[in-house]
Amino acid sequence: QVQVAESGGGLVQPGGSLTLSCAASGSCFNINAGTWYRQAPGKERELVATITRGGSILYAEYVKGRFTISRDSAKNTVFLQMNSLKPEDTALYSCNCAEFWGQGTQVTVSS
């Protein structure tokens, strides 16, 4: 059983930045893609960004140029650097590795 845990969420003002971390046990991210999702209240969960084990990256259109996904293979951790945050980025952010999911970390963008 792989354990996945997100961290780094919080309250930030519009225009601010946060870096989220997603740590997985074992070597999950070395053999599987790591993907960040988010779900705002009353909305469907949506993909934010994904990074494959080969390093290929895909972003949702609404975060291109603002968010950066990266991976530290030695630490088996995937990061999501979020800049120029907007109120509409407010959501529960979660990540997965294969079929394993974390509990999520809340990001709230508000003045």
Radius of gyration: 13 Å
Number of strands: 11
Q: How far is the N terminus from the C terminus?
A: 40 Å
Query: What is the number of helices?
Result: 1
Strand content: over 45%
- SSE arrangement, N to C: EEEHEEEEEEEE
Largest sheet: 7 strands, mixed
Uncertain stretches: none
Helical content, roughly? Answer: under 10%
The quaternary state of the protein chains shown equals: single chain
**What is the 3D form?**
globular
Please tell me the overall pLDDT: 95
Structural class: mainly beta
Topology of this protein?
Layout: E1 4-7, E2 10-12, E3 18-24, H1 28-31, E4 34-39, E5 46-51, E6 57-59, E7 67-72, E8 77-82, E9 91-97, E10 100-101, E11 105-109
Parallel strand pairs: 2-11
Antiparallel strand pairs: 1-3, 3-8, 4-5, 4-9, 5-6, 7-8, 9-10, 9-11
Concise summary:
The protein is 4% helix and 50% strand. By secondary structure, it is mainly β.
What would your notes on this structure say?
Strands 2, 4, 5, 6, 9, 10 and 11 form a seven-stranded mixed beta sheet that branches. This protein is mainly beta. The longest helix has 4 residues. It has one helix and eleven strands. 32% of the residues are buried.
Give the tags:
single chain, mainly beta, 4-stranded antiparallel β-sheet, 11 strands
